[in-house]
Amino acid sequence: MLFSLALARIGAVQSPLLPLYRAHETGQVLRRTRAAFFAAPGVRRGFDHRAMADRLAAGLPRPPTVIDADDTLPDADPAVLPPPPADDDVVRWIYWTSGTTSAPKGVLHTDRSLRTAGHWLGAALRLGPSDIGSMAFPYAHVAGPDYTVMLLEHGIPAVLLEHFALPGALAAYRRHRVTLAGGSTAFYALFLAEARKLPPGRRLLPSLRLLAGGGAPKPPALYHEVTAELGCQLAHGYAMTEAPMVTMGDPYDSPGHLAHTDGRPPAGMEIRIAPESGEIALRGPAVRRGYLDEPAPFDADGFLRTGDLGHLTPTGHLVVTGHLVVTGRLKDIIIRKGENISAQEIEELLYRHPDIADAAVIGLPDPERGERVCAVVEQPPNAGELALATLSAHLLTQGLARYKLPEQLELLPALPRGATLRKVLKQELRERFGGGGAG
User: Fold this and answer.
1) What's the whole-model pTM score?
2) Are 362 and 429 within 8 A, CB to CB?
3) How much of the chain exceeds pLDDT 90, in percent?
4) Which residues form the AMP-binding enzyme C-terminal domain (predicted)?
């Protein structure tokens, strides 16, 4: 975090990468950005990021200079620094999202867009001087600067964790009397699971007043479970890498709105719903400026087409028509623990295995993860039967990040396809395998 903030202070263009990324994802980013410097954190949680950085750099036509990023900054007089950047509307941030295709999309942000999102988030959550926050997700996620701006604006402290896991993180949360926690739907479920291990009447985190987050759909029943069993409020929002703050639940809103919606947008964020399809479109100062080397899906009025479906009530809340706030997705992605995973990216790597003739990767409902990754495979004649461990080993050798690995494998003689375009019928696969566990 300190390294990133120092780069921001001198006006450098930076592209934060999730520590979960491995050679496949990191190599794509290096080739796309043509970065001059690559800051690697060394060995973290048993993985040597510096060694990976050196290998990747050596294979590029114009190798970046690899430097150590251990958050240790030299002692120096701030007075000798150049003036801070004067133009807040220059693109200085490139964040990455899986989106709909195998190649990651570089999302272009400015200081103004990120600062606006953080300001809106703090206002929506109604922070006070006695609040103590917590950051359970990587700072390199687009929510990192979002949350950091919120903390700085309100002058409140936060517990930062190298790695979030329960029950291990609870001791620090209790010691520092955290009042604000969360991250995504999967985090809410993790806290609930720990609370259910306690004797009746005992609160998991007595100081906690609010769980807040976004990044994945929230079942309405989960709201009622959190408020009843954790003894705190739950405010869920709608956001994406392209717009880190779109809507957020108001902790003082009605239980009906908090359970069944993602809240309302702040002043300055415009939401338009396409009358024919129900697709959500956005316009406002927190919306990203474009994609790196790709056309941006803005309409003629400057609204960003999100590929997400939903609608608004007369009160301006984004609401459900079924059991999810966002009623459907045009994008072929899987949202696992709040992280977007491209199905096509995994499918293209699976095709390289000699015992796979065709493959479809789908997301299936999962109470802990939100969605789990399931690979449905069609094998060529006379191929040996695949096991999930063999599949995972193949993907790891291709450099895929571990958090994207399938947790369920299903084998079919032939994938179901449409009669005309022969497109794989993924909805049929979701209905068939949605009730199963990991295979």
Assistant:
1) 0.84
2) yes
3) 67
4) 345-417
